[in-house]
Amino acid sequence: MRVLGIDPGLTRCGVGVVDGTVGRPLTMVHVGVFRTPADLDTARRLHQLEQQVEASVLAHRPDVVAVERVFAQHNVRTVMGTAQASGIAMLVAARHGIPVHLHTPSEVKASVTGSGRADKAQVTQMVTRLLRLTEAPKPADAADALALAICHIWRGGAMNRLEAAVAAAAGTRRAPGAVGTR
Amino acid sequence: MRVLGIDPGLTRCGVGVVDGTVGRPLTMVHVGVFRTPADLDTARRLHQLEQQVEASVLAHRPDVVAVERVFAQHNVRTVMGTAQASGIAMLVAARHGIPVHLHTPSEVKASVTGSGRADKAQVTQMVTRLLRLTEAPKPADAADALALAICHIWRGGAMNRLEAAVAAAAGTRRAPGAVGTR
């Protein structure tokens, strides 16, 4: 499974692409940061971001897009831009028929480090180790996007198998008297 | 000037198109509401909304898109969807090179009724009168989108003349010793 992780933002939007399945070593395919100029109006920044996300989806053809869930409790001045940036990422995925999953920052931290309260340095350290990189991923911001992708592979792995089983069961003609599978 | 007003939302997104200039009677070109199914995931709802806004922009070719400014202080459960919906509207406008202007709800109410604290019924009543409609615009939700468009024609009129003057001045070769216009 290939997952494109997106840590949304207008000024900096972290992106990380990871290949892997549960129980197998993970492979980093790509890491980067999209930026849009702070002196541009929001509409044009969103348009630039859309084009960058679109290019990334076309280049890497992910099976899933994992986006960090944005909370309204955060910094009020930046939360609108972050919410809109996450909306753009979701839109581009949906346009290509790619499933989108949201994960909270604590889900991501817990998946990667074992603690939902891990700090940035711990997340980066574990991402570096899990992806068997010789040095910490650069730019540093994008480590969160890689952590999102890893989180989805591990958490989403179970969710995806469940969804696949449900879909398979729904598609199977039941033998008379068989116990329902849904 | 033709303005497409958008009152953003995922469940209901009001749209209204108004033609007019300051000091002249206004004309309603279109009014409507975009809806996306609440049982669909957010990514696909955003994609459906994008397609509806895109179709509206292509059908009406507005000179300006006026979007209601979303505040983070509002209902936390719905503000994310509203912010993302407004981002989609802004994105589509930017993609077509159409300027986007944001207006706060109180700016809109003040423009249309004279009071920033007017209620929904007063806004609808004034919109009906200003557009010389024989009955209140339907659906009722879309009256806000028409109010946004009217607000922009009146407020934006002055802003646009200023911008045009600045642009014209910047493009004019100055006579030696002429007083700067910027």
TrEMBL record, chains A, B:
Cofactor(s) needed for function: Mg(2+)
Residues given in the record as Mg(2+) 2 binding sites: E68
SUPFAM superfamilies linked to this entry: Ribonuclease H-like (SSF53098)
Cofactor binding comment, as recorded: Binds 2 Mg(2+) ion per subunit.
Enzyme Commission number(s): 3.1.21.10
Localization per record: Cytoplasm
Positions of Mg(2+) 1 binding: D7, D141
Xref: CDD domains: RuvC
Keywords for this protein: Cytoplasm, DNA damage, DNA recombination, DNA repair, DNA-binding, Endonuclease, Hydrolase, Magnesium, Metal-binding, Nuclease
InterPro entries: RNaseH-like_sf, RNaseH_sf, X-over_junc_endoDNase_Mg_BS, X-over_junc_endoDNase_RuvC
Pfam families: RuvC (PF02075)
Residues annotated as the enzyme's active site: D7, E68, D141
Protein family membership: Belongs to the RuvC family.
Subunit structure: Homodimer which binds Holliday junction (HJ) DNA. The HJ becomes 2-fold symmetrical on binding to RuvC with unstacked arms; it has a different conformation from HJ DNA in complex with RuvA. In the full resolvosome a probable DNA-RuvA(4)-RuvB(12)-RuvC(2) complex forms which resolves the HJ.
Function recorded in the entry: The RuvA-RuvB-RuvC complex processes Holliday junction (HJ) DNA during genetic recombination and DNA repair. Endonuclease that resolves HJ intermediates. Cleaves cruciform DNA by making single-stranded nicks across the HJ at symmetrical positions within the homologous arms, yielding a 5'-phosphate and a 3'-hydroxyl group; requires a central core of homology in the junction. The consensus cleavage sequence is 5'-(A/T)TT(C/G)-3'. Cleavage occurs on the 3'-side of the TT dinucleotide at the point of strand exchange.
Name of the protein described by the UniProt record: Crossover junction endodeoxyribonuclease RuvC
Protein source organism: Aeromicrobium wangtongii
Gene this protein is translated from: ruvC
